[in-house]
Amino acid sequence: MSAFTPHNLSLRGITIRYPNKAIAVSDLTLEVVPGEVFGLVGPNGAGKSSLLKCAAGLLKPTHGSVWCGDAQVTNNPRVTAAYLTLMPDPLGVYNDITAAEYLEFFAMAFGLSQDLSRVRRQLAIDRLGLAPWLDHEVETLSAGWQRRLALTRVLLANTPIVLLDEPAAGLDVSARSDLLKIVRGFAAEGRSVVVTSHILPELEELADRFGIIQKGKWIPVSKDQIFFNRNDLTGSFQKGAWKLECSDSAAVRALLGEDKIQLLPGSNRVRLLAQNREEAAEQVARIVRAGHKVYHFEAETLTLAEVTREALDPKT
Amino acid sequence: MKNPLLWLELRIRIRERKLWVVSFLYLLCLLGMSFVPLLSTIDQPYAAPSQPADIGIAIFSTSIFTLLALLLIISPLSSAGAISQEREQRTLPGLLNTPLSSARIAFGKLLATWVFILWLIALSCPFLFLGMIWCGIAWWEVLTALGIIFAAGMLTSTVALGLSGYFKRTITSYLGTGTIFFLWFVVWPIIGGLTSSLEPQNDKAAQDRFLIFQFYTFWAHHPVAPLILAFQKELFEGSSPSPINATTALFFALFIWLVVGIIFFLIACRGIRRALTDK
Fold it and tell me: Residue B272: closest CA among chain A residues belongs to which residue?
């Protein structure tokens, strides 16, 4: 497969106003670099799909511009198609054709020569494991296989940027896991990937960086921070609590006090509350010095779902 | 094949049972209508025998008008849901995220319908050439008739495609197409007929001007008009000199068709792009 040139995706000050005057997106800026998977999080109607359609040139922004690398591609779907593949939600696949015909059709739509078409179709079939399903009509395929089939467009067009709108919607656990591997593979090749999903645990596993959107605007997760990455979830977004498994939980609680130790269900498991890592380490050292054994010690972190919930509704 | 949409539509249509059922019923209808003139001569044993050329002309005339009538029904039906179905299946965003322009998408769909119309016309050729075998009809007259019928099919399918782009739902698109064509084919000519009562009396020049206005406003652009103008000129010119020139009227009709076709094609293209902002 011929190599593609990696490109950044830059959305600069995007505002989208629909003909009915509803504002879908308001002054959003985002930069996604090659090899990165960006997770776009937000409730229904937040503007995620509109933002992706705008990035793909399918929606004209009222203000702002879309850049793929150094090329300005705002509202120009035919040019954008050379840089970017969008897998929309709902997926929208042709039901009356076979999987092989679907591949052939999109190879023609992307204007591939016969030789290149053959090579890329074969690559897509091999990589996504579609060989057993080629003669099946698309409507007879399961949701997971339909998603895989739709992902072949990325490999046929061989674009450096991939936008996936709810790629895991309606998939079972196994199909979701397979899909995540495929998407991670796209990023590993140097593609810039943007994913929206309501299935946050999987998105947390998949994406490198996240942004929360509501009513068309970025929602900050702290005073000066809009975007956050996985390290933030395990580092700076700590709850100030550590899980501890020790030899005698009651004795440990008596030692450090009820304000520092909460008992957890299960034998000898407690939650240690501390201001920071240093204080937590000091408390653990006290427990050990007092002659108790500590078998396990782990910082409690916020999940993406918790961060999102807190950002969207700080009162809770 | 350069247009992927044409390739896709043909693949889908060829597999559909509907294609073969429609083709069979169409042939049956054409067969029945073409033999009506022949049967009418057999049923009159004591009448003077008809000239073969008269029978040939009768078969040809019946066939072409039956063919036109059938195509005026079938061709809009075959494109009336083309874009609205894409919209309902939500396939347009994926389709537009390719180097294909909305014009190329619409044209591909239109070409597929035109290929279907050509297929139906090809099926009808034996009936039309039957008229030639009985003499009375020249080969170029057959080709002219087929050309006009094909142009009428192209026009009606383009109008239906435009309406398919305009309406959001397939069912509304079919209903809208039916309504527009009923108004155009039936109601508008009747209104034209009713205006005859307004014809000025006792002033030949004013009468001629009125007839020209009435003809070009209400009838000249009707899909049947060019076929009548080409083969039944006496209906317009009659025995007395008519202010309407059949050749001018024929080209006027074809010009109007071209303009209408372009307008509805642009509506179809706009409909494809507009589908993305549906909320």
Answer: A58
Which residues of A lie inside 8 Å of B (Cβ-Cβ)? 18-20, 22, 53, 56-59, 77-78, 80-82, 84-88, 90-97, 101, 105-106, 108-111, 150, 153, 157
Residue with tokens 């998407």: A183
Could you give the 3-state DSSP secondary structure of residue B230? helix
> Is residue B90 within 8 Å of residue A90, measured between CB atoms?
yes
* Pairing status of strand A63-68 against strand A9-17: antiparallel
Beta-strand ranges (E) seen in chain A are 9-17, 23-32, 37-41, 63-68, 71-72, 84-87, 161-165, 192-196, 209-214, 217-218, 228-229, 241-246, 261-263, 269-273, 294-299
Evaluated on CA atoms A60, A66, A72, A73, the torsion sign reads negative
Question: What is the residue-level pLDDT of chain B in tens, covering all 279 positions?
Answer: 689 999 999 999 888 888 899 999 999 998 888 777 777 666 565 555 567 777 778 888 888 889 999 999 999 999 998 999 988 888 899 999 999 999 999 999 999 999 999 999 999 888 877 777 777 778 888 888 899 999 999 999 999 999 999 998 999 999 999 999 999 999 999 999 999 888 888 888 888 889 899 999 999 889 888 888 887 666 555 556 677 788 888 889 999 999 999 999 999 999 998 877 655
- Alpha-carbon gap, residue A224 to B215, rounded angstroms: 75
Which tokens hold the place of B45?
A: 């044993």
Whether the Cβ atoms of residue B95 and residue A110 lie closer than 8 Å to each other: no
In A105-198, at which residue ranges do the beta strands (DSSP E only) sit?
161-165, 192-196
Interface test with B, best of A17, A73, A96, A120 (most B CBs within 10 A): A96
Is the whole model's pTM more than 0.90, yes or no? no
How long, in residues, is chain B?
279
The minimum CA-CA distance between A101 and chain B, rounded to whole Å, is 8
**Pick from B92, B236, B238, B86: nearest CA to B164:** B86
- Helix (H/G/I), strand (E/B), else coil: B202: coil
CA–CA dist A191, A184 (Å, integer): 10
Between CA A84 and CA A129 the distance in angstroms is 23
